[in-house]
Amino acid sequence: MKNSKQLIVIASIATGITLSGKSVHAQQAVTNQASNPTTYNISKNSSTIIKLNHKGDIVKYIQSTLNLHFGAGLAEDGIYGKATEEAVKDAQKKLGISIDGIFGPRTASALLNYINNRSIDDKDGLSPVPIQIQKTLVSLGYNISINGNLSSYDTILAIKSFQSKNGLNITGKIDSKMLSILNGKVKGETDETAKFKSNTNYYITVNSSDHICRIYYKENNTWREIKCFNILSGEIDEGLYTTGLQGKSLNLNKVEMKNFTQIDGLNVFYCAEQDSGCGLRICDEGAELLSEIPVKTTIKVF
């Protein structure tokens, strides 16, 4: 119930809800005993803010929210003092917005979005290691930052994408069922890498359906993924190839292609502003890395 009250207050600040042309009082939304209610409507009162030395129940619920979601350790006394101001600054930093210690519509909106999209572990005793989960998602081709924060925007999108592709409820939250499928996918990929054969210590795979390219490196007889990036455009027939000619620049079909690596015939990996119709267009970083990999490295397109 307490969490619901917090969300009502934050939502009131973030959206400036109006009913029948009248502004909803944020404090009245959570209690009938509030004194000096603060009316907050973004469209009409965009300059209204909550800052240092403000007092009231609305401050108390802000403090409670900061304690719950950011571990602020604030006294929930309804006084917007220095400690609360510093806690708001810390939250603003974590939310990736400008830091001023003032709780207004910008901060409220970012906080509400964060609360609604957190990747909270399931309540069945599951306590996954966030960094390991992110590493696993990266190994499966998801382009996310490995920062230990399952609530980060890119991680939530990756989780939702995985859930969608695997017939799970799309919540953006990790639970035991998803973790089980995730581990199964990793095991399947490990079994697949055991079949890799290449003339070099590198192996390249191209997933045509997901438009993902992965580069593996063999160390101590174990293949380890070292890079994963998106295929921006282009297509090539499924099959096994080996890397051929490489170079800094190539011009085909009036398109300048940088850091090219030959796949087969005129088909190459390359970086360019537009599609050349000759192979697979990838990011500059990926093209540069591929152009440095030894020739005769196996490429598997599937």
UniProtKB/TrEMBL annotation:
The keyword Hydrolase applies. Residues 56-111, 132-182 form the Peptidoglycan binding-like domain. The keyword Transmembrane does not apply. One of its GO terms (molecular function) is lysozyme activity. This is Autolytic lysozyme. Its EC number is 3.2.1.17. Pfam families: PG_binding_1. It comes from Clostridium magnum DSM 2767. Coiled coil: none annotated. Keywords: Glycosidase, Hydrolase. SUPFAM superfamilies: PGBD-like (SSF47090).
